[in-house]
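Render this sequence as a predicted structure.
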Amino acid sequence: MAALLAQIEAAAARRGARRVLAVRVRLGALAGFDEEHLGEHWALAVAGGIAEGAELCVSRSDDPLASGAHTVTLESIDVEV
């Protein structure tokens, strides 16, 4: 989660964002947890930061051979500038 947050914060900073409104991620087929578990960790990880209150949109890959099959991949963010 720390690496994902670092990516989000860097992308937000590049865009001069005051806050992050939505985050879209892809959950790899072999990531070892589900969307609900990710959402629980998300809520704790973003508390007090630029992404607090941001909507987390998760798509799940079902391809165990795809690139990023073991990870959560940041796809995009929506921000308020």
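Summary. The helical segments are 2-14, 35-46. The longest strand covers residues 19-27.
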